[in-house]
Design brief:
The complex is a heterodimer. Chain A has six helices and no strands. By secondary structure, chain A is mainly alpha-helical. The chains are: A mainly alpha, B mainly alpha. Chains A and B meet through helix 1, helix 2, helix 3, helix 4 and helix 5 of A and helix 1, helix 2 and helix 3 of B.
């Protein structure tokens, strides 16, 4: 699995992007100020978008930047600004009990160990990354042929979610 | 040298970080952000598997698009719920969210 003999520019780019993404994700979890967490989350989303671009799926990268790094992070930051009524440095505290903290860390460490072991023991097919990116054409054909029902259902789901979010956030008026 | 297992490993690490955030944070918005991290990790796995194993198909990217759609809905409704609860309880601490407790 780990063979450092053939080290190319592709690998260096992957390691750099993956490192930035993981560090930003750790920042999301570990920062004490939730504004820093939200900004770190944007960096992590951009790192994932770069991973998509590196995987030759440019359409998903653009979608990731538009939807995650654009819309969702703006939504989160607006919600944080609406909700913040204490001092900002103490808005993102962990659970106060160290026992719970150690339990959560233990569960996470066990899960990560199991996943890493599973990845290490699996016999992966030796495949090369496809050079050209024609996924937009194929995605469009798949969306409007085989998956057209799911596509329309997703549209309805988005509409329902937007209306529901507006209604829930507006709240009922007191009579 | 970098192949499919490394991308899957990156997804596993991001997912574990998200799980740790969900288990330890007290702020409800931070828990939602950790859930977004986990969904991103799953998307990386889908796209990597699509690009390395089924190069002629586009199913993995298709699923990623739908995961992104559902994640957008989830974050919108979740933040609306948190804002609504915050109006009643004046708090975003998950330990104060006991509205369904009788």
């Amino acid at each position: 699995m780990f063979n450092f003999s053939a080290f190319s520019l592709f690998d260096a780019v992957f390691i750099a992007i993956a490192g930035v993404t993981v560090l930003a994700a750790l920042g999301v979890v570990l920062f004490r100020n939730i504004i820093y967490s939200a900004l770190s989350l944007i960096l992590s989303f951009l790192g994932v978008a770069a991973i998509y671009f590196q995987l030759n799926s440019g359409f998903l990268g653009v979608i990731q930047i538009l939807v995650y790094a654009g819309a969702i992070s703006v939504l989160i930051i607006f919600a944080v600004m609406l909700l913040m009524n204490r001092d900002a440095g103490r808005t993102n505290l962990t659970t106060p009990r160290t026992k719970q903290l150690f339990a959560a860390g233990g569960i996470t460490a066990m899960m990560l160990t199991a996943l890493t072991a599973a990845i290490g023991f699996t016999k992966w097919p030796v495949a090369q990354l496809q050079g050209n990116d024609n996924s937009i054409t194929m995605l469009a054909e798949a969306m409007l042929n085989d998956y057209v029902i799911a596509f329309e259902a997703a549209a309805i789901l988005l509409l329902v979610a937007v209306i529901g979010a507006i209604l829930i956030a507006k709240g009922v008026e007191d009579k | 040298m970098i192949g499919l297992p490394h991308y899957i490993l990156l997804g596993a690490v991001l997912f574990s970080i998200g799980v740790f955030g969900v288990l330890t944070r007290r702020n409800a918005v931070a828990v939602l952000m950790s859930i977004e991290l986990m969904l991103n990790a799953v998307n990386i796995n889908f796209v990597a598997a699509n690009k390395f194993i089924a190069v002629d198909a586009v199913v993995g990217q298709m699923f990623s698009v739908f995961v992104i759609v559902v994640a957008a809905c989830e974050i919108a409704v979740g933040l609306a719920l948190i804002i609504s609860i915050n109006r009643q309880r004046k708090s975003v601490d998950l330990n104060d969210f006991n509205l369904l407790k009788w």
